[in-house]
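Hey everyone, long-time lurker, first post.

I ran two proteins through the pipeline my lab uses and got sequence/structure pairs for each. Pasting them in order. The first:
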Amino acid sequence: MIADKGAPAAGAGHRRDIDGLRAVAVLAIVAYHAFPQWVPGGFIGVDVFFVISGFLITGIIARERDEGRFSYLAFYLRRARRIVPAYVVVLAAIAALSWWLLLPNRLTWVGGPLAASGLFLTNVAFTTAYGYFTPGAQQNPLLHLWSLGVEEQFYLVWPLLLALLSLTALRRVRLAAAAGLMILSLAAAQALVDHNGSVWAFFLFPTRVWEFLAGGFLALAPKFAPRGPASANAAGAAGLALIVGSVALLSDATPFPGLSAVPACLGAALVLWSGIGRDPAATAVLRSAPAVGVGLVSYSLYLWHWPALIFGREYAQRELRPLEIAALLVLSAALAVATWQFVEQPWRHLSAPRRGRALALTLSPLLVFVALGAPMYFTHGLPARLSPSARQAAEIEHTDINPRREECFTAGRPVAPTGCRYGAAADARDYDVLVWGDSHADAATPGVVDWARMRGWSLREVALGGCPPLMDARPMAPKVGELKGCRASAGLVMAEIAADRKLKLIVLAARWPLYDGDTPHYDPGNPPIRVLDARTSGDRVYPLDEALTRTLAAIAATGTKARVVVLGPVPELTFSPSSCVAMARRLHRPEWRCWDAPASLPLVRARPAEAAIARALVGAPEVRTFSPSRRLCTETSCVTVLRRRLLYFDDDHLSATGARMLVPGWLDAALSPPAPALALRSSGPRPPMR
């Protein structure tokens, strides 16, 4: 996010078009974070920034080295004064707002990256501890600082390497070496993307350095400037078209970074090249006063906009309306201008007779955030900040869940056939009820256990995160790839069904809309999943109705006498009722506003999956289903609290209390005899319940 004055590669003065290019980059990022449905590829603004940084920093270092006046101390002092003051102000605001507003689970997620941010290792923290698509990352006010970590690591490594390449014996190969490193880095990024390592490729310096070197290559080759207005205009126009095209055509589902980032980076490099020694008409808009003005405050705007959006959502405890988002962006812009005027500018122009001391004083405030972040993380979010009643609601996500969740679900791998048994001897070879599915199946299990216990039946749970209870399914998450273990788990379950002659009931439960490709998706904390057909080569999408039809046929083919019930999708809310209640108690708001949720989005999301389940059951009249949305939602609202007990532990999973209150009734309704009119149309007698 550099804003250095000067055009090192050209040896000329301040380039207004670079400020304008920064404006394009930051506006793309801000628009993407605020309205991703309108600007699906706006995240490439970071890549544009990296190219600009590589161009400017490489030009400064190479020119000063070639002139024999480069100083590491002076270089790092300039970098620190440019980056650290605004960074410290924003980090302090984030730490204070997090302490005041965030509930313990959220504050825990902030603590680790906050400590890492004091060392400019935020990118490493998100890679190793969270991953880009976990809720802890997507709802973390520090997520955007990963790019500052990558940039600072570039500042540490590249000057040393460039010093080696600037030696007289190696100066002739300097340009070729930069090109070779760029190609190696790009190849490594693409290799990781191709092998389910997109999170690592996204966050880490070695797989991002090629973007800096794309700009650095230009800075090391000043003789390759445009030869005339025609070539400059063609390059500038093509560069802007590549950037705009990437913003419009890429999305979260695009494998990224790697080759998919090349057009945006090439576009940025072409714009930079077009302006070496010239002011082409094609990029005149970049030199306009508004563009330059936005470019000057782009660093501060980048720092402020993301935490403003995150804390706005946290305070409201719901998705923000467009006007509210717009207001937060205006606030971010005002803070950016104030930070540029009163923090960035004064610090950059301070005199520094003793550079070492000035550098130490500039960097020392960062250690405060290491000291602040560590207790947030290790105390699990400083829960003592909350009143007892607010803490009780905030901890429901850990206290009111399946009591055996850690054993049966969070291990992240299929549990052995003798595991996750309820009401059966440890050495029993069979059981009466099987609950099969993903995290929604795990959440529903306490209710199924109560229902089975009333009949003296034993139960077995098989639940694996992100794995639907479907045969031949390959769930694919963006930038992660195939979720491992799903197909193996399905095969083991089918073998158990075939072997267990005592089995009376099979309950298939899942977050069905997650696996239905045509279903609208609005959960920022969990990526949409594409389900592919494992029985075909290539990337054929596996429609939910077809997958469920095939699964029911496979169950029938085992010869089991067990009944099958498909529990339809639990309504997915736009907020977490437990967090809403905890926040209401913390901020002294009325709790009743958390007791129901608008039904429009939950129903729009549930209905396609319910229709797909209904289509799958047309050829299997003996299989029963129940749609929770029919019981929990009206056309206008969905209930979240019943008899003052929270039915959810987050925005889409039933709490253990909710499961015990609701699921037995759902099973009874599903298994009750059909109405006479329906019975007359039945294709045959219903197998008796054993």
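...and the second, right after it:
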Amino acid sequence: MRLPPDDRTLSPRTGYTRAHWEAAADALLAAVEPYAVKGGALYDLPGDRTSWSGRLSDGLEGYARTLLAAAFRQDETVLQRYADGLAAGVAGVWPRIEDRGQPLVEAASIALALRLTRPLLWDRLDDGVRQRAATWLGDALTAEAWPCNWELFPVTVGGFLQEIGHEPEASRKAIERGLGRIEEWYVGEGWYTDGDGRKFDHYNGWAMHLYPVLHAWLADDAGLLDRYGGRLSRHLADYARLFGADGAPMHQGRSLTYRFAATAPLWLGALTGHTPLPPGETRRLASGALKYFLDRGAVDSRGLLTLGWHGPDTALLQGYSGPASPYWASKGFLGLLLPDGHPAWTAPEEPGPAERTDALTAISAPNWLLQSTRSDGVVRLHNHGSEDVRYDPYYTRLAYSTATRPVSSYDNSVIVGDDPSRTEIVPLGVGEGWVASRHTAAGGARVTSVVLARGAVEVRAHLVTGARPGTPVRVTGWAAPEGLSAEVLPAVGLPEPPAGADAPMGLTGRTGEGDTLFVALARLTGEADPEPLGETVGVRADGERELTVRWADGAEVRVRWQDDGVQVAAPDGR
């Protein structure tokens, strides 16, 4: 992808201006044009993968998701291409919107794009096309959504149809129903779960915040915007810390192939005036993410976004991932709705949180502890509150980072027996430099985990209860990519690792009679010559349920496991 040269007067690391973003959008839109079929109603992108919704739905997905980029770009010539495709699509090419069907998702993208570009696209269509399009979209108002972020798709369609006067009562009901549903999943401090349970990931920003905030902003509804914009602003205070200094978003959760869609909430805050971030920091984080992916092979030789993270990578795909799925990255171009003179484009860039200082950030809603180090720009996420209903390596592991990815050897896990299961996670609190949770492991055993962190160093402690005596317990560490190093050392209940053992393979001990405590030291770092890990912290077990941790600077922390949770405090009770 050919972009203008970086303007290095802005930043030594990113330097992307509005011109870079425009050029990136233009290049992506030009690259998909040859794959438009059926009068432009479908985009039949190459590849041998088909989603579980089928090829026709995948083609609609290609139209809808690239239309989003065109809508943010506001280029009349390109929008005419999509106007032709819309006319063909509603003339019988597109599948109907039915209960829990993928076309409901794509209808929301189409409706949002039409709402954003109404004078340039919708208002120029002939009456017959408009009527057929409104009728096709109207099915979204009553279609049953999956009980998750899908509830916001009828809201988004309803917002557009209400604006043009089509089925106003049904539109109003769809909006109220969907917004009512997400109230059930709002857990405070700017965080939602993506449906029932504790599913926390990027969907918070690119779905749970994006749709209601945009709806309120486009409807000019001050009350709604105050509610949802306030939540977005609070969320961004945490969210800004989930990007590495190199621009990488956190590698955790579903649908990671959407890549720089992760920048959408950053731009949304600037667009609506609901953000705690200075405009220069907003651009730094967003442009850093765009550059991160473009520099690492996200776009192939044809200019197409691949199914993967850097390049193609089937390991992080879901059954709903089709050849056009990555184009929900279009959400990242939301910032192009900001005019040229907006401070987000003109203010000098400011370093993001991971560039400024070492930090340990407690996020209580998802029960996460963020650990970032300025020396290497890596952000680590200690996950003690997010899970899916099944074992999922992108939800279930104990830790994630902006520089690593889950591997098949079960990095960042505590494995009881030979089963890595970590279900029924119960958050037990997060505080200054620590986080704790309890979960169910293989055979019904319970594991109560506490992680303490300082700098790049971690103390990982796991109390295993209810396992048969002699059950093997493996505690694993980080899987380090090139340029970083990972270590894991035994502290309590674990033997020394074999010489040359990889950190992800971990350390294995065995349970005794009753409760058994396993403690390891872990580190992921980009420092060339770090202090020996064993000299950074001392650990002493005081019985089966108490632990004293003494950091190299003399600070002490005591951990006490109790029947109803854990107590983490300094010796004086602080």
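Reply from user beta_strand_b:
Welcome! Quick read of the second one: Confidence is low (pLDDT under 50) at residues 8-12. The chain has two domains: 18-354, 357-569.
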